[in-house]
Each structure stands twice: as C-alpha cells, then as structure tokens.
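Translate structure to sequence.
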C-alpha cells in the first residue's frame, strides 16, 4: 500500500508521495514520485501497486519516449495515452502469471503536469485497466493507495482557490492522517509543486525528523480544538450529574 496525492489549484499543482514499501513483515523505502521528460515537457508520475509493475511500465514508457518522442510529448494527454498503451502491454504480458500466483494486477497511477500545448496544468488518474479520469475544479485532487484516512481534511478544507502555501500544508496533513492510521504509509515523503506562472517544477524530499515541528503543532492543536469546541446538547444530558429527567438511565442490576 502507499499514499500518493495530486492537487490542482489556481496557482498550479501539488504532488505528494510517501516512500514506504511493505512486503510481509519487511519495511523498506523507495521513491514513488518520478519526473519524466525535461524542460517544459516534464511531467510527474506517481504509482500505487506492485513495484515490479511500476518499474516495467515506466521502463516501457521511457523506451517509447526515446524512440518516438525524443523532445517530449506535446500535451499531458499524449503522455497519458502513451502510458496507457505501455500499461496494457505489461498487463498482456504479466497479468495471467500474477493472477496464477494470487497477485493482483493493481497498478494505479497519477500523472501531473502542463506540457507545451496544454492550456493549463492537470492531473490524470490511470486505472490498472488503462482507462483514466481527469481532476476537475469542483474536486481539485486525486489520490491513490490508502486514501480513506487522508480524504476528510481535503474534502473539508481544499478548494480550487486555495493558496499554494495552504495546499502544501493540507497535502502534508492528509499524508499525516494516513500515516497515523495505516501501517502501510510512512516517511520519507517526496513533495513537488508546479507553478502555473513560472511554468516549472520544484521538488523536495523530507524524512520524519524534517517535519517534527509541524507534527507536534498539529497534534497539540487538534486536541486543543476538541477541548475548546462549544459543548453540544450532550453537555446537559449525558455527563455525570446531569439532569436525566427525560432520558433513559441504564444501570446494571446484579440482584
């Protein structure tokens, strides 16, 4: 399992991928966010699923780029189309053998960027079957892997008009929620941003100790928010000593 996230906002893109690889009782680290292409034809690829499927599909895509697209793709959709073609080829070669070993062909992929002929940056989610969906302004993010834990904070706080600085914080908090509740998600993480005005990528790598201050701040403040939250109707009805005139009081009768 893993956690990868792509956010599209007015200022550009935010991409995050954790680095934990689990196999049985073994835990290792590996990069899941890869930059392909160069210059203004560079795009990001993040994957969740069997590592062997990722490596083989990306190897086929890079071979295709060297042979047929040496200067890069014109649009991100062109890159996605080429990737899907490579993914289906890998499925044709490996699916039967994997399923015979009780392994699923489970490669999910996020592809993000803005290539020379694109009107604006975008993100595509490619399914194992080779079909895809594109991010939209109403739900400005796509995620793969252990998505359930990191989704609520994004749904509550992220919009297309969110500032890049805030989107980076929300991306981290989404990962941190996943890390806290899923043993298959963890540090290190890779973060990348694409600025629409600069038309360039920036990428950084962070380990557990690098984000210590943010982790402590969030843990302390989320507890404080729970304490400071206005009391609900339960305060006068369910706490010890409260008025229970119109409630059912449950007691254990041992007689």
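Result:
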């Amino acid at each position: 399992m893993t956690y990868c996230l792509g956010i599209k906002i007015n200022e550009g893109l935010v991409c995050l991928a954790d680095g934990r690889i689990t196999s049985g009782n073994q835990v290792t680290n590996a990069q899941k966010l890869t930059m392909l292409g160069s210059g203004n034809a560079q795009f990001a690829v993040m994957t969740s699923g069997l590592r062997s499927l990722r490596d083989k599909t990306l190897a086929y895509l890079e071979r295709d780029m060297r042979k047929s697209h040496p200067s890069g793709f014109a649009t991100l959709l062109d890159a996605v189309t080429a990737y899907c073609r490579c993914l289906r080829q890998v499925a044709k070669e490996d699916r039967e053998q994997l399923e015979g070993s009780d392994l699923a062909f489970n490669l999910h992929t996020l592809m993000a960027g803005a290539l020379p002929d694109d009107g604006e940056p975008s993100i595509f989610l490619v399914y194992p079957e080779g079909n895809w969906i594109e991010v939209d302004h109403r739900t400005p993010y796509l995620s793969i892997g252990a998505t359930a834990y990191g989704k609520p904070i994004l749904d509550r706080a992220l919009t297309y008009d969110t500032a890049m600085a805030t989107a980076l914080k929300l991306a981290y908090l989404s990962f941190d929620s996943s890390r806290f509740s899923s043993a298959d998600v963890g540090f290190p993480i890779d973060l990348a941003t694409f600025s629409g005005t600069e038309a360039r990528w920036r990428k950084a790598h962070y380990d557990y100790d690098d984000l210590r201050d943010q982790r402590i701040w969030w843990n302390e403040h989320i507890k404080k928010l729970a304490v400071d939250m206005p009391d609900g109707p339960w305060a006068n009805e369910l706490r010890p000593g409260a008025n229970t005139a119109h409630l059912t009081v449950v007691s254990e009768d041992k007689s």
